[in-house]
DNA sequence: CGATCCCGCCACATT
DNA sequence: AATGTGGCGGGATCG
């Protein structure tokens, strides 16, 4: 091995001197290679046995000097050789080469050469900034470490920061999934929002007196966020879930720090943050005690983070001169405004990427999880992922599942964040006193966390619907996308918070999952490829295949009509993608959004404004993503664009679109369709399980009729009195319940309805699913008449044994709930939780009780959320 | 001499 | 117990 390397490295430096030769030897010149064998040779060089193994060996064996050289040279070579053809920057290579050239000199690498920043650049160079959706790249820590010639520890530093920005997500032990910057803007946006909430509006960190400012800052924060501690803070730390379980470790302070650090930039007017201030702020948040040592350590960490962020082109180092003198500081040079997905070349691409995988993954994994309690187990830090991870690990031995989860998490994270933010905002508005510190950024990963939101979202909706509705609707619509709204929600993991919305989202999530699962099955069954692929690369399987399969399956099933398809987008993406430049990212502002956000001065403004801003923002950013993700394929880029455009106006249009799409949509929609009231169904919102193409389609074809079958109607504001209307079969059961609840608590009703709805939804879904084969929904052989029945099968499938009989579900909504809980856990643990809990603790039997409960609880839950959650968790876990 | 921050010990978590 | 993660801070370098 060594020899081999040496030859390369060797003083000869054939590379420089005799490029030609090298080319021959290595096969650099593919053109030239007349024979395949040559190639082989080349490759072997890169890795005779196992790429990793060699590298490792070399690295370990080699002296530091060697390493460096190797790194420089080899690092990149392998990359080149490897599939990742497109490493974005040739420049780097050049640079490298130069350095490489030096080799002989071997001067010891000087510290700089080993800097984390440089390492990070190398790391980033290995992956495309905007990977195609189809290709999911998995990152092996060991491999990367060996390739880059560093200890794994260093890779963690990088990855942790990247993870905080969602550029990567942990898939499994030692494995990370590369997402690229597709969602970077969204993440930043979320952080910005979160930052605003926490810190208040734009702050100047250093300029005047730092201290003063600092303090101020701190104070504000405190005020805003009373109990910062519980969560590791804001962001992503996932709020709830688990704080308890997850918290266990100090968890990824680095990640959290990173996010906070970024937040500071985003919130800062000047976009400049000095290290010391940042350190102080971060320390305060974390803990009151400020040791000097701590400070010092914090600063060190910040350097680490700053290096990575610098490599990402998000910040740059500057010096601020203050009274004392010049202090180190960093300036944000990344995007400031986040219109939405816009940043990237093609907004959708990202979504598409993440979406497919996400969706699928989410569904499956979660379901699986459902069985277990784990979901909650640890939400860990912001990454929803982690929490999920825990779950995964436990749950799935399979490689796939983990990935999926990751993906899901990722998606869900994003969504969750948005959701959380919204919730938060809303909550704040409503109950200023109460703060859910944690909630700020929910973890994207876990839908579980979402739970909190749910309660609010679910119930609250009613009142404000109208105005907000439009917004919410817009969001939902957008997010969902005409066809896929529900799905998107689900994906997010957020339960759907759309507080404003009249309808209940969360049920959908559950539904969603189910559907997805089904799809997966179908897809897989249909398409063996996924598995095949799996062999090749695990990641690929999880991410790519699923999405592809789904899409296709959907198409197939539904109707070929869906022209959209990945391909086109992909092409676009590719073209677009190439522009990696981080710096360039600057995003155009959207007029409406930015103003609000920024304009809001500080604390005061507030919630409303914030909310609005959020909505808007969310809409644009989130919605698109969601839509993309979900619909993924179905939506054409064009469509997406439309949306984006429409966003503003969506409110009105969306419903229509949905309808139209629904009707026509047959093809795409995977999950279900959500029809907004606006369209014409003023009062009702419908959730259709659109996902299964065939069945759905059939339904779609005859819209109204179809409705009766699968869809669930959620009461709009007007319907407030009404809990839910379910598919016919379902309805009857539900109806009884509602009565009691009706007037008593509208909110309650909703919640209830929500629960109930879930059931029906399932049913619908099921029905639909089944139909996939045969268009007629009723067709379902087993239990034609009742959708519920269908459900059961579905559930069974999705959940596995968990579910059991459909009949049960069908018959009693309440029962369902109970049943669901166990089963549900998997589905939408978080979102559902609140309701479930209630149900759980209480008696499932009496709806009324639950309702009352909920009423009261709504707030309480929030307040006590952490505690309750824990309780819940504990309770759950036992199960 | 202060700013940076590499390096790797070591604790905690997960297998 | 082994291995994965990642907090943490000593002390080397840089400027």
TrEMBL record:
Which UniProt keywords are listed?
A: Activator, Cell cycle, DNA-binding, Nucleus, Repressor, Transcription, Transcription regulation
Bilayer-crossing regions: none
Q: Where is the composition biased (Basic and acidic residues)?
A: 65-77, 639-661
UniProt-listed SUPFAM superfamilies: Winged helix' DNA-binding domain
The segment(s) forming the E2F/DP family winged-helix DNA-binding domain are: 111-180, 249-334
Cite the InterPro entries for this sequence: E2F (IPR015633), E2F_WHTH_DNA-bd_dom (IPR003316), WH-like_DNA-bd_sf (IPR036388), WH_DNA-bd_sf (IPR036390)
Q: Which Gene3D superfamilies match?
A: Winged helix-like DNA-binding domain superfamily/Winged helix DNA-binding domain
Extract one GO molecular function annotation from the record.
Answer: RNA polymerase II cis-regulatory region sequence-specific DNA binding
**Bias category Polar residues: which stretches?**
81-93, 858-879
Q: Which GO terms describe its cellular component?
A: RNA polymerase II transcription regulator complex
- Region Disordered: which residues? 1-94, 336-358, 383-407, 521-606, 624-663, 846-879
Major localisation: nucleus
Query: Which Pfam families does the record cross-reference, listed alphabetically?
Result: WHD_E2F_TDP (PF02319)
Q: Where in the cell is it found?
A: Nucleus
Tell me the GO BP annotations in alphabetical order: negative regulation of DNA-templated transcription; positive regulation of macromolecule metabolic process; positive regulation of nucleobase-containing compound metabolic process; sprouting angiogenesis
Q: Which family does it belong to?
A: Belongs to the E2F/DP family.
Name used for this protein in its record: Transcription factor E2F7
* Taxonomy of the source species: Eukaryota, Metazoa, Chordata, Craniata, Vertebrata
